[in-house]
Amino acid sequence: MTMTNAGISASPVTPAITATGLSKSYGGKTVLDGIDLTIPPGTVFALLGPNGAGKTTTVQILSTLIPADAGQARLAGHDLAREADAVRAAIGVTGQFAAVDNLLTAHENLMLMADLHHLPRREGRRRADELLRRFDLTEAAKKPVTTYSGGMRRKLDLAMTLVGDPRIIFLDEPTTGLDPRSRRTMWEIIRSLVADDGVTILLTTQYLEEADQLADRIAVLDGGKLIAEGTAEELKRIVPGGHISLKFADPAALDLAASHFPATSRNDEELTLQIPSDGSVPTLRAVLDVLDNAGITPETLSQHTPDLDDVFLTLTGSDKQEISR
Fold first, then answer.
1. What's the confidence (pLDDT) of residue 319?
2. Residues 6+ away with beta carbon under 8 Å from 274
3. 3-state secondary structure at position 38
4. Which residue among 33, 137, 148, 169 is buried most deeply as judged by most CB within 10 Å?
5. What's the predicted TM-score (pTM) here?
6. Which pLDDT belongs to residue 317?
7. Is 241 left (phi over 0), alpha (psi -120 to 50) or beta?
8. Closest CA to 205 of 158, 172, 170
9. Cβ contacts of residue 113 below 8 Å, gap of 6+?
10. From the centroid of its chain, how far is CA 229?
11. pLDDT recorded at residue 174
C-alpha cells in the first residue's frame, strides 16, 4: 500500500473520463474502431486527426448525443450507458459553430441557458453577470449577438456552456475561423478553466499549435483508430529528423567539420552540415565541445526538433509508420 508522508494511504485519483473499445459504424463504414481513453481530472486532453478520423464522433458518443455500437465509458464517475442523465449533468459541450441565438443579447442568451438548467431566477442573473465579466462581455451584454465579432460569439458560446457549472467540457474545434488574436484569447480562457476551476477539457482541433499550447496529453486518431498517444514532447520524440545545422564561411571549414562528424548530411552549395540530434542539451553540448576542441567556428548554428506538424504528417500521411502506444 502506498503511504503518504503523514502515514495515510494515498487514494488513487478517479479519471474524469475512461473509455474502452468505443466503436461506431454507419452503413457498414467504420468511423470509430475500438478506441481506449483515460483522461485525468483537471487536465486538457487533445484529439488530433485529419477530417473523418473520428474526432467528432468520439465527442458525440461521450457527450451522449449518439450511442456507441460497442464499448463502455465512464464520465465523472457515471456509466455512459446506464447513467446518461448524470453524465449530462456533469458535462458541457461547445461545438465547431457558436450555438447562440442571434436575435437575443448576450445576457438574454445566458438567462435562457440558466432557465434550461432550472436555476432560480436570482441565481441565473448572478451566474450570467459573473460569466459576462469573466469573458469581458459586460459592455456588449445588452447588444444583439448579430453585432458581435466571431471571437465574441465564441466566448459567449463557451460562457453558455459554463452556466451549468460542468466538471467536464468538450470543445470540438472551438477556435475554427477565429483570427490569431481571438484564438489566443480563447486559449487563455481555456487555461484558466483548468487552472482556476479544475475542470477537465477534451479538445478536438486541427490546429497543431493549439494542441501543443494547451494539451497535457494528445491522442492522434486516423481512420477511426488511436495510433499514438502521449505528451507533445513524447510524440515529437518518436518522429525522426531532429538535427543541428551548422553553416560555414568556406569549403575548407566545412570539410574539417565533416571529418569530425561522419554521420552527417552536408550541402556543399550552402556550406551547411546537418548533425543528427535528439534535441537535448547534452547532445548540443557534445557537438559544441567537438567544434571547440578542433578549433572550428561555424558562422551560424541552429537546432531543429520535430514539431507536431511533423508528427501529424508522419503518423497520418501516406508514408505513415506503425508506432506503438
1. 46
2. 243, 244, 245, 246, 264, 265, 266, 267
3. strand
4. 169
5. 0.76
6. 66
7. left
8. 172
9. 160, 163, 164
10. 12
11. 84
Domain ranges for the chain: 17-235, 243-305
- Asked if 261 and 254 count as a contact pair (C-beta separation under 8 A), the reply is no
Backbone angles phi, psi at 313, to 5 degrees: -70, -35
Note the maximum CA span of the chain: 80
At residue 309, the pLDDT reads 76
SS3 of residue 246 by DSSP = strand
First CA to last CA distance, the chain:
28
Which residues of the chain have a pLDDT value below 70? 1-11, 96-98, 317-325
Kindly report the CATH class assigned to 17-235.
Answer: alpha beta
> What nine digits make up the cell of 322?
506503425
Considering the segment(s) 243-305 as one domain, its CATH architecture is: 2-Layer Sandwich (3.30)
Sign of CA dihedral 13, 14, 15, 16: negative
What does 42-97 look like in DSSP terms, one character per residue?
A: T-EEEEE--TTSSHHHHHHHHTTSS--SEEEEEETTEETTT-HHHHHHHEEEE-SS
Q: What Rg, from alpha-carbon coordinates, does the chain have?
A: 25
Q: Are the beta carbons of 215 and 46 closer than 8 angstroms?
A: yes
For β-strands 217-222 and 44-48, DSSP reports them as parallel
Spatial distance between the Cα atoms of 44 and 190, rounded to a whole number of angstroms: 9
